[in-house]
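seq as requested:
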Amino acid sequence: MENKKIAAMEDIISIVLRAGVLLSITVICAGLFMHIVLKLAAGSLIIKIGLYILFLTPFARLVVSLFIFLIEKDLIYFAITLAIIVIIVVSNLLVSAKM
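struct tokens:
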């Protein structure tokens, strides 16, 4: 029973990671097409959006893990994951505030 829960959690996380990578590849390719073939300036912005999606994919994994740990009532891993999310968000806010 426990192995099935772990496998289900890993499957959900795997889907999130794959979806993030595929979405970012699609957006980056669309941006490249717009920039190179159509000579549109908006293509470079779309490429940047695709890169942001790629960078945020591991963060999405953390958020999904947080909810999985909450549903499973695994409070230790929930607290650890929540702490990591808070550290990432606060550090990004501090860096952007200095700019």
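The two ends are 50 Å apart (CA to CA).
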